[in-house]
Design a protein that fits this description.
single chain, globular, six-stranded antiparallel β-sheet, mainly beta, seven-stranded antiparallel β-sheet, 255 residues
């Protein structure tokens, strides 16, 4: 009887801990209040925990003043993905150097080095998504797909449609994912992205411009510039442009 009680207690604790660490489907806010007066690099966790596919999944906001730099920590267990929020970033990715403007992206495979510096006159802000698939890391798959890479906003063609338009950034495997799909949607005033639907892939909606209303399950939440929306597997969702200008947002999916 005592053994059964102990086993039951361990299972309950484990379940509560899993629920605590699991990420919620909701709108998360960028919360770095930096108007450029700070002389130090600032960072803040937007969300962090365990996903459906990922053993560890975190999104942080980074704010880099003029003349300062950010070095992404090199690890064999995590992959990283960056999106430029504001400003101009001078990127050194292994031996490759590039200058990235707003909306440009960088994917860094495990073990690769990245340095991000603000050589401009304005504040540089960016998102860093750090993630690990636990024991399912496949470096060879990521290298065969092209390895670490940089995608410039200006190089992505805009394809208009009746609700606005889309920029398809990439759809490819990485060391952590069988498939990593990123595109940017422009959603015109008064339109919704689609009827509320579900899909197996988890998804992130990262707001660049405009004001949206996210349906997440049966809940409705406002999503404004800088916000990050996390949607779990098979969560009913869509977004409606409730503002006065077009919404512009990243849609990121993986499996």
């Amino acid at each position: 009887m005592k053994f059964r009680f102990t086993l039951y207690f361990i299972l309950i604790i484990g379940l509560l801990q899993a629920q605590k660490n699991s990420l919620q489907s909701k709108v998360y806010q960028w919360d770095i209040n930096n108007n450029g007066n700070s002389a130090k690099v600032q960072k803040s966790t937007i969300f962090g925990g365990k996903g459906g596919v990922l053993a560890k999944h975190a999104m942080i906001g980074i704010s880099i003043p003029t003349g300062k730099k950010w070095e992404g920590k090199v690890t064999a267990q995590k992959e990283k993905f960056y999106i430029i929020k504001t400003g101009i970033a001078d990127i050194a990715l292994n031996d490759q150097k590039s200058q990235l403007n707003r909306g440009s992206v960088v994917c860094v495979l495990p073990g690769d080095k990245i340095q991000i510096k603000n050589n401009g006159n304005d504040l540089l802000q960016l998102y860093e998504m750090s993630y690990s698939a636990g024991e399912k890391i496949n470096i060879e798959r990521g290298v065969k797909a092209g390895g670490s890479f940089i995608t410039l906003w200006d190089n992505i063609k805009f394809k208009p449609h009746e609700r606005g338009g889309v920029r398809q950034f990439f759809d490819r495997p990485t060391a952590m994912f069988n498939r990593f799909d990123i595109h940017v949607t422009q959603l015109n005033v008064g339109f919704k992205s689609h009827e509320p639907h579900t899909h197996v892939n988890e998804e992130i909606i990262l707001m660049l411009d405009g004001n949206g209303e996210m349906q997440i399950g049966t809940d409705h939440q406002k999503a404004n510039p800088g916000d990050v929306v996390l949607l779990g597997s098979n969560i009913l969702h869509n977004i409606t442009n409730v503002g006065s200008i077009p919404c512009l947002y990243f849609a990121i999916q993986w499996n």
